[in-house]
């Protein structure tokens, strides 16, 4: 996925503070997370890589927390409307089977036994994304990520011992609106 930005000085966005302007308090955002290390063993892994240009992530650079956890920056709120994922199998029976998303200590969109979202592409993928027709995990109610809260993004990986997942091969997307509070 590519994002392009253009500085417009004329046309329909003359003021940078109106909706759609670069200084507006609300912006469309796609948070792009992926695995920061190669996957070569069965077990949990973290979506620890933020594949976003510097300055565009809504998360802090807090290095004291786990690499698969992110704290939303103060003064910002994100309202997610859609979750999506791309979890290709590297071959054989190796694959991501489930995704876990925690808001502080509570796992979102899961049963009471914390199974997570089912994303095994060999069976069905709850987070499969397509534009035509629009598919993805459209949230029944928007999920509001609040400032200063800790969010954790993990996956379960099954490795067949031969085929291993490459770095940044498993992707998780949160799509919504980023709001700068107090602007």
Average pLDDT number = 84
* Topology pattern, helix = H, strand = E: EEEEEEEEEEEEE
Which topology does CATH recognise? Jelly Rolls
What does the radius of gyration come to? 18 Å
In total, the number of domains comes to 1
Structural class: mainly beta
Gross morphology is: globular
- Mind describing the biggest β-sheet? 6 strands, antiparallel
Supply the number of helical segments: 0
Low-confidence stretches: none
Secondary-structure arrangement, i.e. CATH architecture: Sandwich
Question: How many E strands?
Answer: 13
Beta-strand share of residues: 35-45%
The proportion of residues forming helix, as a percent range, comes to under 10%
CATH class: Mainly Beta
How far the N terminus sits from the C terminus, by CA atoms, comes to 29 Å
Could you explain how this protein is built, in words?
By secondary structure, the chain is an all-beta fold. The protein has strands at 26-34, 43-46, 49-50, 69-71, 76-86, 95-103, 106-107, 117-118, 130-131, 134-135, 137-145, 150-158, 171-180.
Name some characteristics of this structure.
single chain, 183 residues, Jelly Rolls, 13 strands, globular
Element layout with pairings:
Layout (H helix, E strand, L loop, with lengths): L25 E9 L8 E4 L2 E2 L18 E3 L4 E11 L8 E9 L2 E2 L9 E2 L11 E2 L2 E2 L1 E9 L4 E9 L12 E10 L3
Antiparallel strand pairs: 1-3, 1-13, 2-12, 4-12, 5-11, 5-13, 6-7, 6-8, 6-12, 9-10
Concise account of the structure shown:
The chain is mainly beta.
């Amino acid at each position: 996925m590519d994002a392009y930005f253009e500085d417009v000085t004329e046309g329909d966005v003359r003021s940078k503070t109106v909706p759609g302007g670069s200084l507006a308090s609300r912006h469309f955002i796609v948070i792009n997370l992926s695995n920061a290390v190669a996957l070569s063993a069965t077990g949990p892994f973290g979506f620890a890589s933020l594949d976003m240009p510097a300055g565009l992530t809504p998360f802090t650079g807090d290095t004291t927390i786990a690499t698969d956890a992110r704290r939303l920056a103060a003064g910002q709120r994100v309202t997610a409307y859609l979750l999506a994922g791309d979890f290709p199998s590297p071959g054989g029976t190796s694959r991501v089977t489930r995704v876990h998303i925690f808001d502080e200590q509570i796992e979102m969109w899961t049963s009471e036994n914390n199974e997570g979202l089912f994303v095994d592409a060999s069976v069905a993928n709850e987070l499969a994304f397509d534009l035509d027709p629009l598919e993805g995990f459209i949230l029944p109610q928007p999920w509001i990520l609040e400032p200063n809260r800790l969010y954790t993004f993990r996956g379960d990986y099954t490795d067949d011992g031969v085929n291993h997942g490459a770095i940044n091969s498993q992707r998780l997307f949160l799509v919504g609106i980023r709001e700068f509070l107090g602007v």
